Amino acid sequence: MVGDWDGDGRDTLGVRRGAQYHLKDVIAPGPADRVVVYGRAGDTTLVGDWDGDGVDTLGVRRDPVPLAVEGLRGSGGLTSTEIPTAASGRLTTVAGAVPAPRSAAREVTVRVQVEAGLPVDGATFADVAMDTLNDRRGWGADGSVSFARGTTGQMTLVLASPATVDRLCAPLRTNGYTSCRTGSQVIINAARWAGGATAFNAAGGDIAAYRQYVVNHETGHFLGHGHVGCPGAGRLAPVMQQQTLSMGGCRPNGWPHP
Q1: CA atoms within 13 A on the CB side of 36
Q2: Can you give the residue ranges of the DUF3152 domain (predicted)?
């Protein structure tokens, strides 16, 4: 979703017709992968690689507005950017099992759960999260850990509404905003998954980088790592810095071993 990308008060869309991209009502062309046009209600829309994960992000305009991101990999599993403050409170385990991609000193099996009532495709969310955990820049870069996925596991990765995050994380105060790790649960705030965090975004971070950060940061707590501060203005933030709350002059980073 691009929203009001060119600042004229209207949502900005790119239109795809089949395998071809077409311009319509061109207002202000942007970078080559983000053609700026206006579409009609119901148009399938192209927004280019909006979240930086190497996959085009698509959406469809619903009357009257907004543009709702469909459940594609580039959306991180979201089927809408409208995240309710509270959903059902019931966690649903994403079906399926995926082996760890490589051998390591420690193998952690992850159960992925999504709160029922959230506009999220659970399988896509699970894929994006597991890709992050097993990335070569992740916690297993030194061969210490690799992550498998199953319906039971040593770690449970949860995507939940702000109200459910507050309940599951208590007595830690997440204030409807942050995520947490409690015991074997890594709990991700769906509102942050959808829109990132103010401090992180303002420092130049994008949605894909924030998703990588929040999964790796909270998993870092599960693995026994504590918080650290910014090492100096202009430097890359350590993944265990609380980048959701403040960048402290550092640059956004989602990886333990960037």
Answers
A1: 15
A2: 82-247
Q: What is the pLDDT of residues 94-120, one digit of tens each?
A: 999 999 999 999 999 999 999 999 999
Q: Is 132 helix (H, G, I), strand (E, B) or coil?
A: helix
CA–CA gap between residue 82 and residue 79 (Å, rounded): 9
Write down the CATH number for the domain with range 91-222.
3.40.390
Domain boundaries, the chain: 1-70, 91-222
Give the Å distances, CA to CA, from 224 to 17, 158, 182, 183.
Answer: 49, 18, 12, 11
CB 47 within 8 A of CB 80: no
Hey, what are 59's tokens?
Answer: 């959406």
14, amino acid identity: G
The DSSP bridge pattern shows strands 58-61 and 106-115 to be unpaired
161-182: average pLDDT = 97
Radius of gyration of the chain (CA): 19
- How sure is the predictor about 249, in pLDDT bands with cuts at 50, 70 and 90? very high
pTM for this predicted structure: 0.74
Angle of helix 207-222 relative to helix 122-133, nearest 10 degrees, comes to 70
Q: Assess whether the previous peptide bond of 238 is cis (omega < 30° from 0).
A: no
Rounded Cα gap, residues 127 and 211, in angstroms: 12
In 3D, which of 145, 149, 100, 148 has the Cα closest to residue 123? 149
Report the pLDDT averaged over residues 193-218: 95
Model confidence over 220-233: pLDDT tens digits? Answer: 999 999 999 999 99
Per the prediction, the chain carries an average pLDDT of 80
H-helix segments, the chain: 122-133, 162-169, 190-195, 198-202, 207-222
